[in-house]
Known about the structure:
By secondary structure, the chain is mainly beta. 4% of the residues lie in helices and 32% in strands.
Amino acid sequence: MKHVLVGVFVLLSGTAFAQSEIPFDSTPNFLKGLPADLYMGEASGVAVNSKGHVFVYSRGNTSGPAYAATASQILEFGPDGKYLREIGHNLYAWSFAHDIRVDRDDNLWAIDKGSDMIIKFNPAGRVEMVFGRKKEASDDGAEAWKRVNPPRPPVDGQFRQPTDVTWDTQGNIFISDGYINSRVAKYDKTGHWVKSFGEPGSGPGQLNTPHGIAADAEGNIYVADRGNRRIQVFDPDGKLLRQIKIDVPIPPDAMPWMGNKPTPEQASNGTMAGGAPWTVCITPGPGTQYLYTSDAYPGRIYKLTLDGKVLGYL
Length: 314
């Protein structure tokens, strides 16, 4: 958890650094006060609201079988790190946590990869909007979506392992969808379907596991196109504006967080490639905005200008 919170504080920073490594402060054991029977598991997402409250989307406190168990819960902590509450306990949408975001009105949005659902909570913690729907447990052969070739055609309003959410200046909602559909879904601010853009592939505007999404002050949409090792930037209508690639040399002694060390081919292309974006965040305005992203190997956080110049990394 220490490393997750370090990432949060770095992502919230808006200051430019000339040196290659981003300075940071660490606060050990920041989160505290969990009830005796409540445990934090793998933290798949962290968000902070305007009051400084920290929301951790955790895969802890699982229930069910060893595989396909529910692993999705939101824990809220105060600015001092003290535990406040759990949000959405035993919610129907909970299956497998992926990411969490806070919008400009302090509403909380949870993206559950396992149930294919995105849930909007108001600041009081009550459900206000639901996007997508999981398969019915009572249906014959109900199971998680499988990857098939050729891919299944996407269906308006239906998600297949979604990953993240963002909003443009008009309040339109953009959902990265995700591991299977490899597209971006757009809704208006009232939750009505507008369109989708992107499709599976490696060409300009095509996507391969869009794993994160964010918007700048002009409403442009930045998509972490992880499988293609790039960030693609679109206007709010889905028109491709530019592509960003991160090419920072990997240290020869770098080791993966799990498994064998990637081969030279794996380290230069695909999900485990250096600079392949697993996340994307943009500092709020007014003033100069900065783009932050991270990779799995060698496991760095990068700070960039919005046009893609690397300013530093951690």
